[in-house]
Design goal:
219 residues, alpha/beta, Rossmann fold, 5-stranded parallel β-sheet, two-stranded antiparallel sheet, 7 helices, 7 strands
């Protein structure tokens, strides 16, 4: 695939009230005849290897009672083999993967979910921009990135202790070498320092998630 592809990838299919709970205007949609929330939230948990994306995403999913989607499951076999062999993925390797995650988030909402939580490293601004297209055609969808961060040495130590995962500790350094931390102008990003204990991280994350949901409800 050519690396000259538009970084936003192909446009997602228009999602409207007729195809599921994601309405095309700013009204409350209905699921099974019952009003659903004013907004449907897509939570994308991001960050380098070892930051705890899966743990945090599953926790949010459980607390909010919304589906959880493991981003790694959408990597083609070729990508997984590359990472298992310590070969960094290129931009060309990622476009279809990112687009698939974007489409899956909309599919979950169209199927009736009030929200969805996904994991994706989203290391670069242009990778995040691919996902940002998701709410463009649905005014009742809000997208949030939850950026998990910690010093490289901390994450390398954690990955080095993991068993049975294809991502080796050497890939942490590779990811940090291309990492573009979110900037202040990326106002859809929630940052969480994951250097602390798991309980501290999960508590802080849910406090910030709950605050965002409340802000949307007050609009």
């Amino acid at each position: 695939m050519s690396t000259s592809r538009n970084s936003l990838g192909p446009n997602p299919k228009r999602t409207g009230a007729s195809s599921g709970p994601v309405a095309s205007d700013n009204t409350i949609a209905e699921v099974n005849g019952h009003p659903s929330p004013k907004y449907h939230h897509i939570w994308l948990v991001t960050g380098p290897a070892g930051c705890g994306k899966t743990t945090v995403a599953k926790h949010i999913s459980s607390k909010l009672n919304v589906p959880y989607v493991e981003g790694d499951d959408f990597h083609p076999k070729a990508n997984i083999e590359k990472m298992a062999n310590g070969v960094p993925l290129t931009d060309a390797d990622r476009w279809d993967w990112l687009t698939a995650l974007r489409e899956e988030s909309l599919r979950q909402l169209s199927a009736g979910a009030e929200g969805v939580v996904l994991t994706c490293s989203a290391l670069k601004r242009k990778y995040r921009d691919v996902i940002r297209v998701a709410p463009y055609f649905s005014h009742d969808v809000l997208l949030h990135f939850i950026y998990l961060h910690a010093p490289e040495a901390v994450l390398m130590d954690r990955v080095g202790k993991r068993q049975g995962h294809y991502m080796g500790a050497n890939m942490v350094h590779s990811q940090f070498s291309i990492l573009e931390p979110p900037t202040a102008e990326e106002t859809d990003v929630i940052s969480v320092d994951v250097s602390g204990s798991p309980d501290e991280v999960l508590r802080e994350t849910m406090e910030k998630v709950t605050k965002k949901i409340a802000e949307g409800a007050d609009d």
